[in-house]
Amino acid sequence: MDTEISLRVDGAERRLTVDTRTTLLDALRERLGNTSPKKGCDHGQCGACTVLLDGRRANSCLALAVAHDGAEIVTAAGLAADGDLHPMQRSFIAHDAFQCGYCTPGQIVSAVAMLDEAANGWPSAVTFEAPDGSDGAVGTGPVDLATSPDEIRERMSGNLCRCAAYANIVPAIQEVAQS
Amino acid sequence: MSIIPARAMGRPLDRFDGADKVRGLAPYAYEHPVARPAYLSAVRSTIATGQIMGIDCSQASAQPGVLGVLTHLNAPRLGTDDGELRILQSEEVAFRGQFVGAVIAETSEIARHAAGLVRVDYRPRPHDVDLESSREQGRLRVPQQIMPMFPVTVDKGDVESALAAASVRVEHNYRTPWYNHNPIEPHTTIACWNDDQLTLYVSTQYLMGVRSTVAAAFRLDPQQVRVYAPHVGGAFGSKVPVHSDLILAVMAAQLVPGRSVRFALTRHQMFTQTGYRSPTIQRVRLGADAEGRLTAVDHESFEQTSRLGEFAEHATRATPTMYATPHLRIRQQVAALDLPTPSIMRAPGESVGMFALESAMDELAVACGLDPVELRLRNEPVAHPLDGRPFSSRGLAACLREGARRFGWQPRQATTTPSRQDGWLVGTGVAASTYPVLRLPGSKATIRVTPDGRYTVLMAAVDIGTGTRTALTQVAADALRVDLAQVELRLGDTAYPPAAQEGGSAGITSWGATICVGADELRRRIAAEHGGTIPADGLEVTVDMPENPHLEQYAMHAFGAQFAEVRVHGETGEIRVPRQLGVFAVGRVVNPKTARSQLIGGMTMGLSMALHEASLLDPRYGHVINHDLATYHVSSNADVPAVQAHWIAEQDDQLNPVGIKGAGEIGIVGAAAAIANAVHHATGVRVRELPITLDKLLTV
User: CB A160 to CB B629 under 8 A?
Assistant: First the structure.
């Protein structure tokens, strides 16, 4: 069954017709021609399809387009205005934080969202691991990513990189977190 | 041979396609904008072996938006005898998951739904998918086809007598599981027939292979097939051969001429349709004198292939190259099973073979009471142990020494009481790496120059993420003796001169050598025919890859040494690898930035192999049950705390005019053994079957 919806994609208002089975990822890639988010697994397991969905990172392959009528979507292609690169994108290039580049748009969107999450004090699985092994306190304010590569590794583990550029991805993100 | 001086080479340039890739604007095969695309979805067999008794397509065909249904009843007859590619040619089913049909539709949703409505009735036959029982029952054969250049069977001296007389003996079996490549970009195709021209956008490591294979399969002149592959989202060997997904896409496109058919394998299908690394059962026997000098090396490997075709993982390939020994025996056997055909996967042969050999060397070090670095240094050969040829360069000893220094290796006489830190058992391990310098035939290059001093280099080569687009431009600039900004490299299109595959760490070595010849020829013609100035209407030369006069004279191999620190939790058995460090001897490094990424990528894939990866076969049904990225775990960011790759300065004038050995494969070689050896050092438990999961350490 087809339904008409509207999406705001990378700042532009788009009206489109989708099958009610169409995922947000396929709506972007196959209906709107925005192939910045990638399809790696279609199961929410690899993270290549990560977009900002109303400001939060989401696996667009796990979202049905029809359920997000009116949503604001930002892909890696729309992270920076006017054709410039976002600082995270520049840092990925400088650190060679990718090889084939297929997971990269998802990695970058994820990293940008993650900086916000940490700034807003969202904890991760490693946030409460104090050096002495005791639990830290919950809700203690912003999480410092610049000095905690373990936080970055944990928070970025939803984005697989088979070329395995992790050793470059972490310093690329750390550098942006420091600035 | 002399190698060209470096000006652009050696600079850690950012990737030229970086700005496109970080925005997602670099088009991969499926993403090329095409008018009115149609979508393909496959139907796969649900039995391991048997016969199709009937196919009912009526429900699928009746779906609005369905453009066609393919089965063996209406598929074109193929002109290939490659069993893997001969899909939809009969009622026979050769493995579970084999393509038995497909649906073409206006949208991907319709195609997928309709594919699920195709009803297939089978008469199954009993199947055999068990390598262990094939081995036990002797249903094995010596492989006929093996990866090039290196012998499958070796007998040098008398291994049995030498083992009997040895002061120290090590004999063990080592096992590695079924691995799947799992590039994040699945195998994808766009296929379009227009009149008698076939246009293909393919995710491939080998454009010319796609063209010739498809042309043969569909009885076309290769000139009728145009293949584009500007960007490829990872491959690791799986995209060197043509697989059946491409054949299916071309068949489908024939049913809807003028329409561009888009086909992407699902992640599930990636576990059956794209090749994989065979499981191996390897037996290594080492004999040594009291000082740890090898007197005998025996390495056997048992693997699987399919009944459709033969591929043998050449697991024993590196063994004759590694250590000096007067007695050497190599055997390799395969069992043909009712499974998909295995294929090449990153460091084919070496990555699993060196897990076995380098684990055994560590066991020998323990048995001899020798430091494992020292043991390897003691067994360095002066020439190739098999045929006595000198090595063009052999950096193993230098890598071991430099790696030990950088890593802070503490020489040890034998496994001592494990050190404990906060409840974790801590150990360190070392292993050697090697990969041959392969020379792949079939490359040409065209170089054009215009009077404004701009050079264009054309080759049907491809960048699969290795950094070819950048590094090969650096090679070209130095070959042409001009600034980088004057050179444009175009690749990824069969309209350009043919190029060998991006595989076997031989892409840039083969293509770079070809470009050097082209640059020489261009200079020669400008000097001889145009008085030293570029003619007003420019000049173009096309050349073949040069022969290497030193090929028979020298043994050519890259080497490396890998070190790992491992922590095993004393109570839970959890295994972490806080530190990996590799030092490599890979000839000249063209681009330190992209080369380092290749090496750390390989090392991390080795970590993944050591601790995580295994495709688990259900013998009842003959398929991989963990066929997704949640249950086939590849290393994620949190698994990889610190990976360092270094290299030694190595000038080798015998290889090719660029002086390079390739860096794509060697990073994975030895990584798993270094980790397994560190696990042993930490815990005293020797794990001889990958992956090293905590259940195997419960005896700690």
Answer: yes
Q: Which domains does chain B have, with CATH numbers?
A: 31-47+49-125+181-270 (3.30.365.10), 154-178+276-437+553-696 (3.30.365.10), 440-544 (3.30.365.10)
Strand A72-74 with B424-436, pairing: unpaired
Token output for B104: 């073409």
The DSSP letter of residue B246 is H
Put simply, the answer to whether A100 touches B109 (Cβ < 8 Å) is no
Contact A104 B19 (CB under 8 A): no
pLDDT in tens, B585-626: 999 999 999 999 999 999 999 999 999 999 999 999 999 999
Which of B23, B464, B602 is facing A76, going by the closest CB pair?
B23
**How many other C-beta atoms can be found within 10 angstroms of the C-beta atom of residue B201?**
25
Tell me if A85 and B22 make a contact (CB, 8 A cut-off): yes
Opening angle at CA B162, ends B160 and B163, nearest 5: 65
Give dist(CA B278, CA B131) in Å, integer.
10
Q: Which of A22, A104, A170 sits opposite B109 (nearest CB)?
A: A22
- Tens digit of each residue's pLDDT (9 = 90 or more) over B83-140: 999 999 999 999 999 999 999 999 999 999 999 999 999 999 999 999 999 989 988 9
The one catalytic residue in B358, B502, B665, B689 is B665
Q: Does B488 touch chain A (CB under 8 A)?
A: no
B628 pLDDT tier (thresholds 50, 70, 90): very high
What pTM was estimated for this model as a whole? Answer: 0.97
pLDDT in tens, A1-18: 899 999 999 999 999 999
Cβ neighbours of B634 in A, within 8 Å: 160, 162
HSE-CB of B184 using CA atoms within 13 angstroms: 33
**A47 and A103: one domain?**
no
Q: What is the pLDDT of residue B599?
A: 98
Of A143, A50, A135, which is closest to residue A88 (Cα–Cα)? A50
Residue B25 has pLDDT above 80, yes or no: yes
Number of structural domains found in chain A: 2
- Take residue B305 and report the two structure tokens written for it: 């292939």
Together in a domain, A146 and A115: yes
- Please say whether the beta carbons of B675 and B607 come within 8 A: yes
Contact across the interface for A26 and B108, Cβ inside 8 Å = yes
Name the residue of chain B whose CA is nearest to A160's CA: B636
Q: Which domain holds residue A53?
A: 2-75
The pLDDT mean for chain B works out to 96
Q: Which of B24, B185, B629 sits opposite A100 (nearest CB)?
A: B185
Contacts of B34 in chain A (CB under 8 A): none
Q: Do B629 and A45 touch (CB under 8 A)?
A: yes
Encode pLDDT of B129-156 as tens digits. 999 999 899 889 998 866 656 788 999 9
Out of B108, B236, B638, name the one closest to residue A157 (CB). Answer: B638
What are B42's two structure tokens? 């496959």
